[in-house]
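Known limitations

Structure tokens in this collection are predictions and should be treated as such. Users comparing against experimental data should check residue numbering before alignment. To illustrate the layout, the record for 4-hydroxy-tetrahydrodipicolinate reductase is reproduced below. The input appears on top and the generated tokens appear beneath it.
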Amino acid sequence: MTHTPGLVVTGASGRMGQMLIRMIGENDKMRLVGAVERKGHPWVGQDIGTAMGGPALGVTVTDEAVDAFAKAQGIVDFTTPEATLEFAALAAQARAVHVIGTTGMTEEQIAALEPAARHAVIIRSGNMSLGVNLLAQLTRKIAEALDEDFDVEIVESHHHHKVDAPSGTALMFGEAAAAGRGVQLRDVADRGRDGITGARQKGHIGFSAIRGGDIVGEHDVMFLAPGERVILRHIATDRSVFARGALKAAIWGQGRAPGIYSMADVLGL
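Generated tokens:
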């Protein structure tokens, strides 16, 4: 057990946090050594297992991330962009693998991870699932093969609690399509249409977001031309696919050279 990587889960009380904690407990290739929550959270000071309504796990929820990270080999982080940037610096100090599933990060925030990546492994992805990462590779290949006579539209659907739009996964598909066409997504993205917008600009990549109910995550990448359509679709029915991928990444990152990696690296795509 002493050679099994110890993992810390940030945002421990959240839906992803609790799922990660349960899955770590079921996996003999890892162990839970810390659970972090924001200052003032009612779970701070409680055993994480008890707080989750189950048996005690021997790990106390803390708001002192630096102490928790000091005894960890991996940090699994599905929180907010601002918190993730703070955690990246602390994870780098601890030389712990930092797996980032946080969505809604701006280009500037992503770039701000680079100093931490000089000292530790960072694995960041807009989506941790195997299927999504395979679909991103297909998106890039199709975008390479089809010219601008094919309009690209990305439609994503999520539960009504989601706070960012477009989703990180939708932007991931957009980046893949843009890369396939040799352009920067920021130069061709249409992220909102309202009112008299004029005709669609050739070569642009459109995004549409649906929010409602308990949708875990659905994404369509559409290539649309007169007379034909190519549609790629991924549907997630359980958040465990994201947690499973994140934990796979935390193990994969052990012993790697410092730097920023993606799930495509983890999966060898």
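For this record: The chain has two domains: 6-124+239-267, 130-236. The two ends are 31 Å apart (CA to CA). Please report discrepancies through the issue tracker.
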